[in-house]
Amino acid sequence: xxxxxxxLQNQQTDPELSQLxxxxxxxxxxxxxxxxxxxxxxxxxxxxxxxxxxxxQKKLDIIANDLIKRRLAELPSVKGIASEExxxxxSLHSDGRFLVSFDPLDGSSNIDIxxxxxxxxxxLPAPEGTLTQASFLQSGRNQLAAGYALYGPSTLMALSTGxxxxxxxxDPNSQTFLQLEAQVQIPATTQEFAINMSNQRFWQxxxxxxxxxxxxxxxxxxxxxxxxxxxxxxVGDVHRVLSRGGIFTYPADHKNPDKPFKLRLMYxxxxxxxxxxxxxxxxxxxxxxxxxxEPSGIxxxxxxxxxxxxxxSHCLSYHA
Length: 320
Ligand code: F6P
Ligand code: MN
Prior knowledge:
The protein has helices at 4-10, 15-37, 59-72, 133-136, 205-215, 234-244, 265-277, 309-317, and strands at residues 46-50, 56-58, 78-83, 90-91, 98-106, 117-125, 145-151, 155-160, 166-171, 176-181, 192-194, 227-228, 247-250, 263-264, 282-284, 301-302, 304-307. By secondary structure, it is α+β, with helices and mostly antiparallel strands.
């Protein structure tokens, strides 16, 4: 198995970008060690603060955020960062070429039940001039790299620099990532869907119609039965989609009129959309390709429908 470092060299990745991606992998390895030690590392439980979206932060959210911030500051090529756990952007090196957006610990409600969590990251080119929130407001098509680490029974990392999506596994002995798959391919068709069904009555008509038809299974218009899975951590659900196909969606809903969407564009939807598209899948809001969205804010939320190409297209036909 080739190492992440060798794989990036073989892909002729820009050396400074490779250095940044290797650092991100190293940071994820450190977070993985904290996740594994759990209670022993004192990382469980709720911290006393709230993040910018008014959600309670778990201790590990803050630990992971501070770790990523501190370690990225070591690299002169990083101009600034945006994080789910930071209200504003953080300036690092004024001459840096890269901007990094990240969700330090996705699925944090899973920590205390010892279930799947992960780290999601996205790398954008840094525009000239002073760093502001506007520096980050670039469409997902501009991403130079995107990836996630999944802290599961083993720690895995999915990564794309625009040459397909690669999957790596963390070797706990060497503390390095080794390549498992050089070209992840999401099957075009599927019989598996992921959605939080408890929100059904709050969805808009197109999603109601689509899911109703799935639930009718072999007796309905789809003429086949579907299975449902929901991990409550996007990183876990997207990983399943990359592994064996499926459709994952967090659609618009009117449960809370001030918050029609759940997932964040810059550090959840965009990086996952790049990984999925690079693995031959599709990622849309229902009306627009996620990677084509012109962002209006660093913590902007969007509807997400992603996964197996034919199934996502089918779902989009209800939105047409
Ligand atoms: O980061 C938001 C998030 O935790 C995702 O990782 C996950 O897909 C979703 O929210 C879970 O939502 P719910 O709480 O509705 O199951
Ligand atoms: Mn998240």
